[in-house]
Automatic annotation (TrEMBL):
Residues 17-178 form the Glutamate synthase alpha subunit C-terminal domain. This is Glutamate synthase alpha subunit C-terminal domain-containing protein. The lineage of its organism: Eukaryota, Viridiplantae, Chlorophyta, Chloropicophyceae, Chloropicales. InterPro entries: Glu_synth_asu_C, Glu_synth_asu_C_sf, Glutamate_Synthase. Gene3D superfamilies: Glutamate synthase, alpha subunit, C-terminal domain. One of its GO terms (molecular function) is oxidoreductase activity. It holds the Pfam family GXGXG.
Amino acid sequence: EFIQAVDTEGVCDITKKIVNVDRAFGGRIGGYVAYRHGDTGFAGSININLQGSGGQSFGCFIVGGINITLVGEANDYVCKGMAGGEVAIMPPADLSADASECVLIGNTALYGATGGRLFVNGRAGERFSVRNSMADAVVEGVGDHCCEYMTGGCVVVLGPVGRNVGAGMTGGLGYFYD
C-alpha cells in the first residue's frame, strides 16, 4: 500500500502502534520517497498515525508529503535530518496532568533539519533545534541550549526555556514566551 502510493504519488493512510525499540522511524520511508522523487518532488501524501513511544531518532530524514502524528512520547533526536514533511506529537487524551508540564520528546530534536515542521503539545528536553537549518517548530517548553548553532527556520516556545538560548545561532528566528 505504501510503496504503491509513493510510486503513483497517491495518498496512503497508516495507523499503527509504536514502541521505544522502534528506532529511526521515518528513515526508511523518507529514504524511499527521496529515492523515487527527490527531496521535494513527491506530490502524494503519506499520513501515518501512531500511538505509543517512539524510539531514538523518531521522524528522522522525512521529506515533503510525509505527515506523522504520534499520540505518546518519543526519545532523543526527534526529526533528526528532517528535510520536509510534518510531525505532530501529543499526549494521550486521557492524560490527567497538564500537557504543557509534560516532557514528550527527549534531547537534541531537529538536529541538522533542513526543512519541515514539528509540533509538540508538551515540552522537549535539552538542545532543542540544535543545528536546525530551515525547519519550523512549536513546543510548550524546552531545556537548556535551545536553538544552539541554529542557522535558519523558526522556533516558537510557548513555555519555560532553559539557559544558554541561541548560543552560536547565526540565523533563523526564535520566539520565546517564558
